[in-house]
Structure formats: C-alpha cells, structure tokens
Amino acid sequence: MEEKKNDLDHLFKNNRDWADAITDKDPEFFSTLSQQQAPDILWIGCSDSRVPANEIIALPPGEVFVHRNIANVVVHTDLNCLSVIQYAVDVLKIDHIIVCGHYGCGGINASMSNESFGLIDNWLRHIKDVTRFNRAELDLLEGNEKSNRLCELNVIEQVKNVANTSIIKNAWKRGEQLSVHGWVYGLEDGIVKDMHTTLSSLEELKVKNNPD
Ligand code: CO
C-alpha cells in the first residue's frame, strides 16, 4: 500500500522558511518574544481570509492581540469575545482596541438576504439588529452602496458595544488611557478607512449612547 502523503507538507515547509527568515534577520527574535507578550493593540476583526490583522497594519508577531469572528460582531453575552477584551485590557494593558470590518463582507451580505444559511442565521441576527437601528438611512440605498454602508454602520455599532462592556467602562473609571476605534478595510485596494467613531472616555460614550 502506498504511504499516505501528508497534504499539508507545504505548510510545514512554509513555516520553516518563515522562521528561518526571521531568525536570519534577528537571531534573538523568538527567544525574546517567548519570554513575554506586550502588545499595544487589540484587533477585533472579521474571520474573512482576506483580512489578516497583522499583515494589514504590517506589524510582526507580538504586537497585536487578535479576536476574529464572522462580521466582527461584539455581542454583550459572548464570553469568548468578552474574555479576550478583559484579558487584553486588564492583564495586557493594551491602549487601543480596533474594530475592523471590511467592505464586501459575506456575513453582512448574508444578513441582508432572506436566505437561510443554517446555524449562522442566529449569529447574523445581530447584524439584522444593526439594520433595524439604521432603517431610515439604509432604505435610501441599494445594492453595493447599501451593503457597504451596513459594513460601516456595523463597525460603528460594534465600537459602541465594546465601549459599553463593564470591562471598558471600569477601565475608564480607573482613569486608564484606552481608545476604541472603528475601521473599515477595502478588499479592492487594501486601504483602511477610519470611521472617526473613536471613543476614549465615559463622557464620549455617554454622548454616543444618547446623541440627542
Ligand atoms: Co467579513
């Protein structure tokens, strides 16, 4: 019987080459990094394979703490996401949280259709909520324009969700410097757009929560 070929051999080779290239430049890189991690940034992004956190902002291992899920949603009761935020803020003492969505997001588009995709329909409910909150604005748009705007509105909403967690509010109460940012990444040009929805204090959050 022929020996079964390991289909992932190329990945082990890639990994070797990658580790060798880094060690060639900096022989101490891995040994230094293995002693500690001290990232400044928590990245909350989409699971989409085209939106890799470190690559987009050109930062090496050790610089970005990462949480990704479909359509970069921050749900008030998602213990996975909340645990990442809590560890990042309370233990790693990161200074910036970036919620990064992207145009052409499959999760956003799926939420706009009436089709059923299985279990994920329940996750996409959270984006349908964002649609409902912004119905008046979105009803004026169609097609790509509507989808792109929903990608932006979703990021703006998720920034508020991060800022409204007890974790962030308590950090601000303790006087910690911490900012929550909302970005949208363009698959077509690789460029990130700042939604200018940054929140850095309880006062700013209060205004966002009660805009009138
Ligand atoms: Co996506």
What's the arrangement of secondary structure elements?
Layout: H1 9-25, H2 29-35, E1 41-46, H3 53-56, E2 64-69, H4 79-91, E3 96-102, H5 106-112, H6 120-133, H7 135-138, H8 143-163, H9 166-173, E4 179-185, E5 192-194, H10 202-209
Helix pairs in contact: 5-6
How would you characterize the overall build of this protein?
α5 crosses α6 (120-133). The protein has a 5-stranded mixed beta sheet with strand order 2-1-3-4-5. It has helices spanning 9-25, 29-35, 53-56, 79-91, 106-112, 120-133, 135-138, 143-163, 166-173, 202-209; strands spanning 41-46, 64-69, 96-102, 179-185, 192-194. β4 (179-185) and β5 (192-194) form a beta hairpin. The chain is an alpha/beta fold and 212 residues long. 49% of the residues lie in helices and 14% in strands. It folds into 2 domains: 1-36; 38-209, Beta-carbonic Anhydrase, Chain A. It is globular, with a radius of gyration of 20 Å. The chain has 10 helices and 5 strands, in the order ααβαβαβαααααββα. The N and C termini lie far apart (74 Å). The protein binds cobalt (II) ion. Cobalt (II) ion binds at residues 46, 48, 71, 102, 105-107.
- Calculate the mean pLDDT score and round it: 96
CATH-defined superfamily of the largest domain: Carbonic anhydrase
E-strand count: 5
CATH architecture name of the largest domain: 3-Layer(aba) Sandwich
Spatial strand sequence of the major β-sheet:
2-1-3-4-5
Distance between the termini: 74 Å
Radius of gyration over all CA atoms, rounded: 20 Å
CATH class of the largest domain: Alpha Beta
Following the backbone from N to C, one meets helices and strands in this order, namely HHEHEHEHHHHHEEH
Helix content: 40-55%
Distinct ligands, ions and cofactors found in the model? cobalt (II) ion
Question: Any idea what the shape is?
Answer: globular
Largest sheet: 5 strands, mixed
Contiguous low-pLDDT stretches (5 residues minimum) are: none
In CATH, the topology of the largest domain is named: Beta-carbonic Anhydrase, Chain A
User: Pairing-aware structural class of the strands and helices?
Assistant: alpha/beta
